[in-house]
């Protein structure tokens, strides 16, 4: 399975009256996501399934990705992708999609960075920038819905940056902003 891990785009700041779950993408956030997703489609095959956090900014990001890059335009809301989601539950949920050849997950930091680090079997934390996407290849034991080995890093894209195919270069620096 190819797994695309996409962090939601830039969202409006929190306000006293509205809860975090209602924060929506800014125009810049939408533009960044469109550009990144366009580049995702040029890097390889399109996802067949998108799993999204139920929060507004993630759903909006997933909708843009589905319109531009999802072969079957199929998006499913996945509770394990909430910002306070459990990493083990999320990993199991993704591996249970074992029949899908290409899956995109859309969510939040630090959960997505923890997911990428865990799948790569990396002790070093990973941070995805807003609107950034990482592609991994997963070798799944379909009978058990478990990984046979650590994921393989394919590439990373951050808004306004070139595609990075070196794992070391992709995760160098101080984390997501």
Automatic annotation (TrEMBL):
<dbReference type="InterPro" id="IPR050275">
    <property type="entry name" value="PGM_Phosphatase"/>
</dbReference>
<dbReference type="GO" id="GO:0101006">
    <property type="term" value="F:protein histidine phosphatase activity"/>
</dbReference>
<protein>
    <submittedName>
        <fullName>Phosphohistidine phosphatase SixA</fullName>
    </submittedName>
</protein>
<dbReference type="InterPro" id="IPR013078">
    <property type="entry name" value="His_Pase_superF_clade-1"/>
</dbReference>
<dbReference type="InterPro" id="IPR029033">
    <property type="entry name" value="His_PPase_superfam"/>
</dbReference>
<dbReference type="Pfam" id="PF00300">
    <property type="entry name" value="His_Phos_1"/>
</dbReference>
<dbReference type="GO" id="GO:0005737">
    <property type="term" value="C:cytoplasm"/>
</dbReference>
<dbReference type="InterPro" id="IPR004449">
    <property type="entry name" value="SixA"/>
</dbReference>
């Amino acid at each position: 399975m190819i797994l695309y891990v996409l962090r939601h785009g830039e969202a409006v700041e929190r306000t006293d009256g509205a809860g975090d779950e209602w924060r929506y993408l800014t125009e810049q956030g939408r533009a960044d996501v469109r550009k990144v997703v366009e580049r995702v489609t040029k890097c390889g095959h399109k996802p067949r399934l998108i799993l999204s956090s139920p929060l507004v900014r993630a759903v909006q990001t997933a909708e843009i990705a589905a319109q531009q890059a999802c072969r079957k335009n199929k998006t499913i809301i996945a509770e394990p992708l909430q910002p306070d989601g459990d990493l083990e539950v999320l990993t199991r949920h993704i591996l249970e999609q074992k029949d899908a050849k290409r899956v995109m997950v859309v969510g939040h930091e630090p959960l997505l960075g923890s997911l990428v680090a865990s799948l790569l079997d990396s002790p070093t934390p990973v941070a995805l920038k807003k609107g950034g996407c990482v592609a991994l290849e997963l070798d799944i034991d379909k009978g058990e819905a478990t990984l046979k080995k650590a994921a393989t890093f394919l590439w990373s894209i951050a808004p306004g940056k070139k595609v990075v195919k070196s794992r070391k270069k992709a995760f160098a620096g101080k984390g997501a902003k």
